[in-house]
Amino acid sequence: MKKRTPISEIMTKNVISLKTNDDLEKAESLFKKNNIRHIPVVSGKEIVGMLSYTDLLRISFADAIDDYAEDVDTVVYNMFTIEQVMAKKLITVSSDTTIKEVAEILAKKEFHALPVVDNEILVGIVTTTDLIKYLINQY
After folding, report:
1. Got the DSSP string for 24-54?
2. pTM for the model
3. What are the angstrom distances between the C-alpha of 31 and each of 27, 35, 46?
4. Which residues does 14 contact at the CB level (< 8 Å), separation at least 6?
5. Label partner for 67 (CA 20 to 30 A): which of 55, 60, 123, 137?
6. CA dihedral angle for residue 89, residue 94, residue 98, residue 101, rounded to 10 degrees
7. Model pLDDT, residue 74
8. What is the pLDDT of residue 13?
9. How many C-alpha atoms does 12 have within 13 Å on its Cβ side?
10. What pLDDT was estimated at residue 64?
11. What is the spatial distance between Cα 8 and Cα 95, in angstroms, rounded to a whole number?
């Protein structure tokens, strides 16, 4: 296992993102369509927040199996904006941060994804799943 491997080796580079003026229905659709759990929120190319699927579940019935769940979600989603639901105090890493350093940050914090930012521009996202896949590939 290489000790100085940069996070750019395993991060997702084609990041799916949201804008602050997008709605929560779009967010739910992106989560489900792309089978992801974290979406950076951007203003231009600069990251301003992070929305997780868990954040969405806290305010909705997104996983309800009932026929009326979609109608309920729409009503609930119209009550909130992405800015109200997203995490705003973010820890970011640069693309040359080592995989070990990222793993240490994620192990100490209560979140499972970090935006990768170079020169204030979002260039990727790295998740605990990325780290697990990397570890599996080492064996």
Report:
1. HHHHHHHHHHHT-SEEEEEETTEEEEEEEHH
2. 0.85
3. 6, 6, 21
4. none
5. 55
6. -20
7. 64
8. 95
9. 20
10. 52
11. 5
Element containing residue 57 per DSSP (H, E):
helix 53-59
Could you tell me the sign of the dihedral formed by the alpha carbons of 22, 24, 30, 33, in that order? Answer: negative
Q: Look at residue 59 in the predicted model and tell me its pLDDT.
A: 83
Distances (CA, A) of 94 to 29, 47, 99: 29, 13, 11
Residue 41, Cβ density class (10 Å: 0-12 exposed, 13-18 middle, ≥19 buried)? buried
The number of beta carbons lying within 10 Å of the beta carbon of residue 82 is 23
CA distances (Å), origin 1, targets 4, 7, 137: 9, 14, 10
The tokens for 73 are 């979600």
Look at residue 68 in the predicted model and tell me its pLDDT: 46
Q: Which domains does the chain have, with CATH numbers?
A: 7-137 (3.10.580.10)
- Element holding 127 (H helix, E strand): strand 121-127
In this prediction, the residues of the chain whose per-residue pLDDT falls under 50 are 62-63, 65, 67-69
